[in-house]
Every structure is written in structure tokens, then in C-alpha cells.
Fold this protein.
Amino acid sequence: MSAVKSYIDQNKERFINELISLLKIPSISADRAFKDDVLKTARSVKNSLEKAGCRHVEICETPGYPIVFGEHIFDENLPTVLVYGHYDVQPADPLDLWDVPPFDPVIKKTESHPEGAIYARGASDDKGQMYMHVKAFEIMMEMGTLPCNVKFMIEGEEEVGSPSLDWFVKKNQEKLRNDVILISDTGMISNQQPSITTGLRGLSYVEVEVTGPNRDLHSGLYGGAVANPINVLSKMIASLHDENNHITIPGFYDKVIEATDEERKEMAKAPFSLEAYKQALDIKEVYGEKGYTTNERNSIRPTLDVNGIWGGYTGEGAKTVIASKAYAKISMRLVPDQDPEEITKLFTTHFESIAPKSVKVKVSPHHGGHPYVTPIDNIGYKAANKAYSETFGVPAIPQRSGGSIPIVALFEQELKSKTILMGFGLDGDAIHSPNEHFGILNYLKGIETIPLFYKYFTEMHQSIS
Ligand code: BES
Ligand code: MN
Ligand code: MN
């Protein structure tokens, strides 16, 4: 057994308990009611970094929630790894669909996690994955094997679109200077087949408001004679896809880079069972854009989805009413080279143009982000792959993900370094959903794999410079 592995073995109970303590703080960035908890989580992350041996740790104030910044520089001639992660989490609702309380972590054994998984909001996204880096750092410090310099940048606003990070990164280019950025905030194919995320989708997120009459009306007295904003909104939304599930917004696909046949062939080699996929979701049939496979639909193709829709009476029983207003929140996932601002404009123009005269519409943009793809011929990718090969016994395969981490494109642009997305979550971890969990095996494997990345990255970096 490797020295790292036996260190993990001896300390795993403590590693798990420390993560559980962190998961107990409800750091929901989207809800101001949790402000104190978000701030408390930042302090807790700072303490853990200090305890792990990080020389200089500070809480950097921003216009929003603070960024925990840590720095352990011991030799200017060695490369520097910048670790990014987030300590904020998604809201826990709907609460009644959780089998366990979201902020009182429970370990449960399941079919996909025979060794057990920690159930809690943020277990996988991203506290569990972020904390792997703190523990990996502790191990390298304790064993005296840290091969290079390290910086940590752990933010508290990722789940609300990182509104302060842009400002922070642009203002602190020197402070954040690094040779590679390392992030564990994505997933991998399975515990038998690790993968490295080579692409993220961008995002354009809008909220729409449709207003009909100036007040709620009796649906018997006015029904049929006045436009019902909920009916109108439903029709407008339905028209945003055609019969092939292509998005109908003019110009929407103009900048999409089509994958080549070769790229698609390569993608199709990744292990995937459509039957298991359907079974896991309890659906009889998958759905999506004509001409593309499920894995293409959820990674290399752009999408448009309603995330929430409301209006009218939703309380108990029946109320006969035509609401004055109807609303929806709509997200569009983007792929290279779509530009989030441009797409938001195209959406707005189109949505306004399809509104009948009987209603008024208002489109308000929320956060957005650029899509990202990275090549695999750089030493960061190679070092990660070598690390995975050692801990999982098989090389990792590159995989483009459907999720978004909007700041990754910004990092590349501002800090001029490559980002390596070493995710250890599984698709079934239910991130953002009730019963989010993170496999203990995944947590410990992550802690074991990270020091190997540092080692190989430093070796490869030294040999080319
Ligand atoms: N960690 C996720 C993104 C992710 C998860 C990427 C799994 C790939 C695989 C991140 O915390 C997230 O949820 N991002 C948001 C976007 C953000 C602007 C709210 C998303 O993808 O919806
Ligand atoms: Mn995340
Ligand atoms: Mn998330």
C-alpha cells in the first residue's frame, strides 16, 4: 500500500467527520436568510486550510460573499497549482422530497455506493469535492511530499453565477498567478471508468413576465374574451422548439461549432448504457434534438429549458381565476462559440416578437457564462490522466460535460493558464436535487489521486522548462 493510501486509511474517520461538520452549515448563497451561515462557512474553510498547514490564508472581501484565498509558496522556481472550488451550496428545497435532513448529514449504503455515501446538500457539489483538496494538501504537508507551490481560491457565490469573481480575478492577476488551475467540481463516468472533463457548457439565463389584463379576473365572466397570460406564455414557450426539438430562435445556432464525425465517433466510445440511463430515471423513452445521441444532447449541443413556471392560483382546491401575470425562468445551455450576451439578446428579440398584442412581455436577464473546451495535449491533462491511471487502474477518458462553471472561461482569458477539471462525482449523486450525496469511496479516491497530480504535474513541468 502506498504511504498516501495508508495515511488515508488511518485518518479516514476524521476526514469524513470533518466534511460532515462543514456540510452542517447551510451555506445557501441564493437566499439572504442564510447570510451568516455562508460567512461562517468561509471562516471554517479558512481554519481548515490553516490547520492543514497552509502558510498564508485570508478571507478576501468582495462586493458579495468573500473568497477564501490561501497560499503556500516555498520555492519560486517550482510551479504553482491554483485550486478553485466553492463553499456555497444550492437551496435545499423541495425539502419534503429529502429522505434525510439536508444539513444533518447521514451516511447510507446504496446499490451504487456499497461503501456508503454521505447524504447532504453540497456533499458532492462542491463541499465534498473542494474538501478533498484540503485533505490532499494536509497529506502532502504531513508527509513532506508537497512537490510545488499551491494557491487556493474558494468562493462563496458559484451557485449564483459568481458575480464577484470576475472583479476579483481581474483585480488580482498577480496574486492568482499560476501554472495550472485544478478544479474538482464536475463528475466522472463511473468508479470503474474515470474521466476528465474537457468541456463545459455556457449559460444564458432569463426570466420572463407576461402581463395580460391589469388585474386578476373571474374566469367565468372574462374567460374566452381576454388573453390568459398563462395560456399565452405556455404557447410561446412551446413554440421555442420545433418538431425535431431544434430551438426556433433565429440565429441561435449560427455560432455553434459542429463536432466532426471523428469527434463524435470518439465520444461514442465512452461506456454508456441507454437502458441503465432510462431505468435510473424511470423513463420509458429519452427525448431531444433529432440527429444526436443522448450523450451528444447533454454535452455538445445547446439547449433551452424552462426551470420554473408560475402564475395564477396554486393553493389548495380550485379557484376560478384568470391571473393578470404569468412568469417563467428559462435557461439556455451554450456550446462553443455561442456568446451568452448575444444569445440573451436573440432570445429577448424573438420572445418579444412572438408575443400576441393581447399581452405585454418583459424579459430580464440573470447570470450567464461562456462555454469552455480544452485540448488534451497539455501537461496538466497528461498529469491528471497518469494520476487517475494509478489510483483507478485504468486511464481516464476525456468527456465534455453538460454543466457550467462560468468562471473557467474567464480564468483562461485572464490568467492565461489551463484548467484541469478532475471531478470525482457520479451522475447519480443528485447534485442540486433532494438527497444529494457523495460516495465515501469517491471522496477518499479523490484525496488519493490529487497528490499524484501534483507530483506528475511538477515532474512534467520541470522537464519541459
Ligand atoms: N458543479 C456544478 C457544475 C457541474 C456539475 C459541471 C457537474 C459539470 C458536472 C456547478 O456548481 C453548477 O451547478 N453550475 C451551475 C451554473 C451556475 C451559474 C449556477 C449549473 O451548471 O447549473
Ligand atoms: Mn459546483
Ligand atoms: Mn452547483
Observations:
- The two ends are 32 Å apart (CA to CA).
- The first helix runs from residue 3 to 23.
- The pocket of BES (ligand 1) is lined by residues 125-126, 158-159, 161, 185-187, 200, 203, 367, 369, 401, 403-406, 431 (CB under 6 Å).
